[in-house]
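Data availability (excerpt). The following record was deposited with the supplementary files.
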Amino acid sequence: MSSEIKVDTISENTSANGVVIDSVTLKDGAVTATAASTITTADTSTNLTLKSTDASASAAPRMIFERDSASPADSDQLGLTMYFADNDAGESTNFFEIKALAVDVSDGTEDGQLRFSGMNGGSSVEYMRFDPGSAGTIFNDGSADIDFRVESNGNTHALFVDAGNDRVGIGTSSPSTLLELAAGTLQIRGTAGAGVNGTTITCSDSTTQVDLSKGGSSSHSLMRFANSNGFIGSISTSSTSTAFNTSSDYRLKENVNYDWDGTTELKKLKPAKFNFKTDASKTLDGFLAHEVSSIVPIAVSGDKDGVDENGDPEYQGIDQSKLVPLLVKTVQELEARIKTLEDV
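Predicted structure:
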């Protein structure tokens, strides 16, 4: 059974509560309904328009979603906006939704949350949520394989999170490490103007690799080194010079011995002239690391003929400053022998 009501005008002349038609109230130009409503069109015309002719600076038009519960509770869902369409099997599918929640309904400490979810590979995943009460703004809270990309005016991947490989790129679409910075300059500034499982900084051959600077000229450490024992060294600057420091405080040492033979040890060293294979035109003075390792072990790093797990060479290095105590001791011994001869 169907029925129609066709009128040109319904005037509210008899009731202060308006005119009620099948649970729909018409009053003073407003419509109030107590049941779900559907507005259907057969074309692409607008289904619903909210228009305000107010000329003030106040926000208008307005839409309010209100959950008027008599027993509000934490984590109540406040509203849900869903975008449905048929898939190619003719099934009505929720492709995207926006959900609001009341995380905390305590008077005076209320917290809200807004979630954005959508279909990805046939499953609904959460793309982003705003949770200012505890976690802040979160992207991909469900740990799905969804990349995140920020595009600048001239760079399509100014910031890029490769979700599948758990990597972050700055200026690159294919980071090959946990954090990769594309060719350019990385500048970390303090207010004065001036990481770690393997860090590599690469730039063009003609530019500075790392520039550490600070405001002012007072003596201060630019870089400090530490391990589980505490700070063990630093790189510091004064107004005119740079110092490379290693820990040497007497309070850190024991078994101090001034009576040892420096000359005999020094004579074991084999200073040589050589060139590196990568620069045959430059002859240098120095040592072969493995020839020093048994004499001043602390001066040498690595092992002779060392290789890594892939069989690639791990080359030895030498810190020639560690030879200074041996040189000083030998000079002192020579001075003592010379004085003995002079006193004869």
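Summary of structural features: Residues 71-145 form one domain.
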